[in-house]
Task: inverse folding
């Protein structure tokens, strides 16, 4: 236990992320100070927001610094502790980044109970992605029973929870996803009412059939042509929770071609970032934990193995190659 | 008093409205039924929303029918009444359209007091445009003291009230208007803190100087390049009240080029239509009336004379040739 392996940002991508943007390093393990503890990470969470952090310049969060450990959510086990509230063997989730061992002063680290919920789920449906779904749906879309809720990237870690929560609120849930396999999963396994395969062509027409009463709430993870196709289908007083714009993460232009819909249909569009809504996390996590433990919310994981494979897995996530929550399981 | 003159929609415009889209007709005055009253219109209100009504197809309101009297707000005097609540001589505002005489059953018609407020102001600052400003500002932007509020079409009937109400809420008020004369009026006569002349070039740069602390609330009447220039200047958690998109009224494309700002800055954009917020009108009109009577809200009118000149005045309004509220005074 004398060394730690980590992945740092070696260079900033221009356009698509490549493996060369990362570097695997072996570094000495620092000694613990009083009040600190050491975690052996078991799971790394890979999430689309990391792509934004890799850019320089103004965004809602500080840019990921060059030559430092990639940011990211983690789940693991306390292996050494000089902190009064954490003991060796505690299962914890936090933001220790792409590395095997992390040091924490206990802040932003929470102990979790893995008796009914697997540790990795605290990075997915019972973690940041789940809370993201919960906040966007319940605090921006605020669905009423009988309404129709549409979500893009529907088979992903966030989208899958959005649709299942919408169903639990007695709404019609319609997904948008890429490919027949993902669409079948969204309907057959997650219980959405319908799913539009955006790779099959005219999303607007397909949505007309999938949401025959129009769209009251839209949870947007993608943007670009997908949003253009959804806007004309929005009902009066529709609400759009803007969570991500993955279509533009590489700098592609993703204009909203016809903003007149916002006026004609009196729509609300609201961007949000879940880490700014910390006061909502306890309630959201309690509900999500209950749903997952009871089998009311299901999820799927795509698991890469070993720290060295994290960059390739992240690149795959940005290309939509994952299926459900993308994780890295550390050896 | 045996005939009425009116202007009907003769054809739907493609692109810019032309005089040929209208037709002046002389028609017989219908007799009054029990419960009806006749108004001699003194003032016609001309408003940008009418351009939308002239199109066919789905919008928030029914299209203006061909060969029928143009819709529109009016102010005038009761000249004949078989209605128990209205007497000859009453000053009233309503929606009797582009004609000299209108018949009403009393619904959507309100008696107004012209002792402290001139009749025409009930079509402007103390009427639909004023309430539009009040609702967008107070119910969507919800400005806090010390914040910066920007409004496009700032010298217009709506925009001028937005900025003055923002000042009354202890905000920094910044206008965007076309031409030096309008900008000078906005600052010198209406008391805005600054005004950006969009005809002078880079709106984004000018806005940086005019709103050095960024923009917290944006009241949008225009859209297109103006909105593109404002979005990057919005502060985190900024609110945008979407009232009009006059830049696109002739079918011009007005994309929002970089919607990433909604996410990065966690913005809220909300479209609204003031006629759907009737419950807010009494409070808004009371406040606006008080401000106008006391001289705290000022306004300017551009007055065309005679019914026959209404089409030309309306075309001028769409081109920004008016200055403040565009009215037609009937002979």
Result:
């Amino acid at each position: 236990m004398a060394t730690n392996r980590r992945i740092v940002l070696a260079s900033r991508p221009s356009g698509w992320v490549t493996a060369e943007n990362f570097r695997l390093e072996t570094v000495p393990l620092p000694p613990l100070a009083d009040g600190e503890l050491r975690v052996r990470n078991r799971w790394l969470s890979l999430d689309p927001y990391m792509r934004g952090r890799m850019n320089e310049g103004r965004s809602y969060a500080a840019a990921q610094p060059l030559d430092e450990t990639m940011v990211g959510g983690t789940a693991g086990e306390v292996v050494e502790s000089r902190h009064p509230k954490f003991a060796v063997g505690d299962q914890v989730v936090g933001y220790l980044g792409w590395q095997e061992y992390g040091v924490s002063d206990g802040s932003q680290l929470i102990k979790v109970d893995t008796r009914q919920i697997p540790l990795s789920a605290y990075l997915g449906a019972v973690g940041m992605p789940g809370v993201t779904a919960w906040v966007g749906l319940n605090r921006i879309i605020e669905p009423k029973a009988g309404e129709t809720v549409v979500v893009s990237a529907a088979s992903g870690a966030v989208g899958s929870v959005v649709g299942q929560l919408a169903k639990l609120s007695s709404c019609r849930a319609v997904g948008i996803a890429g490919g027949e396999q993902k669409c079948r999963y969204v309907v057959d396994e997650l219980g959405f009412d319908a799913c539009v395969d955006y790779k099959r062509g005219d999303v607007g027409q397909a949505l007309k059939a999938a949401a025959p009463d129009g769209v009251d709430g839209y949870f947007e993870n993608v943007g670009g042509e997908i949003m253009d196709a959804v806007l004309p289908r929005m009902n009066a007083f529709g609400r759009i929770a803007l969570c991500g714009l993955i279509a533009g993460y590489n700098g592609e232009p993703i204009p909203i071609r016809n903003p007149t819909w916002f006026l004609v249909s009196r729509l609300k569009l609201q961007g949000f970032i879940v880490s700014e809504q910390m006061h909502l996390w306890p309630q959201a996590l309690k509900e999500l934990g209950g749903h997952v433990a009871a089998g009311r919310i299901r999820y799927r994981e795509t698991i890469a193995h070993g720290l060295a494979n994290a960059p390739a897995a992240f690149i795959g996530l940005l290309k939509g190659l994952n299926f459900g929550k993308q994780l890295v399981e550390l050896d």
